[in-house]
Amino acid sequence: MNRTTPLLSCIALTIATCAGMFAQAQRQPPTPDQAIKGMFADINRRVLAMAKDLPEEKYSHKPSADTRSFGDVIVHIASGNIFAAKIGRGEKANWDELDPKEYQTKAAIVALIDKSIADATASLKAIPAEYFSKTLYPWFAVIEHAGEHYGQLVAYYREMGLVPPESRPK
Questions:
Q1: Does residue 144 sit within a domain?
Q2: Staple 146 to which of 43, 53, 86, 129, CB 3.0 to 4.6 Å?
Q3: Residue 114: domain span
Q4: What gap in Å lies between CA 109 and CA 71, rounded to an integer?
Q5: Nearest to residue 79, comparing CAs of 98, 53, 63?
Q6: For residues 93 and 86, is the Cβ–Cβ distance under 8 A?
Q7: What is the CATH number of the domain that holds 122?
Q8: Number of domains the chain is built from
Q9: N-terminal to C-terminal alpha carbon distance within the chain
Q10: 57 domain residue, yes or no
Q11: Quick one: CA dihedral 47, 52, 58, 60, positive or negative?
Q12: Which helix (H) or strand (E) element contains residue 133?
């Protein structure tokens, strides 16, 4: 074995490591606009995956009598998305709670959350990036709200002995 081979390997590894660190340092953090749009898309992707994944017979599951059922939580998240969509379009809006009794089936609930995500995403995309240098309203609150309830839904899955879609091996 040539004595220079380990040295050359070490130099090559060092150069590769430094190049990777340099590339990482050159990436810019997301702008507020990019961050809000990315976080909104991500949390809603995870909620929608759960809504589509859970068997319909488990939609009425609730850990105790004084909590919302799985399906009711999805409807509640959709309420936040609808609020954000209205604000994003420049409409005056209250966070009006949708009545979960109006959405009795998995298909109706999945359609509701899917439509609420699409409408809010369209509103969000139409907002100029400069808006987010002044305020994150209402988007940050809606994202946090969905994230809180996403965690609740993860706990429901685990309580039912199921693995949430996001936790499954890829």
A1: yes
A2: 43
A3: 30-167
A4: 7
A5: 98
A6: yes
A7: 1.20.120.450
A8: 1
A9: 41
A10: yes
A11: positive
A12: helix 131-134
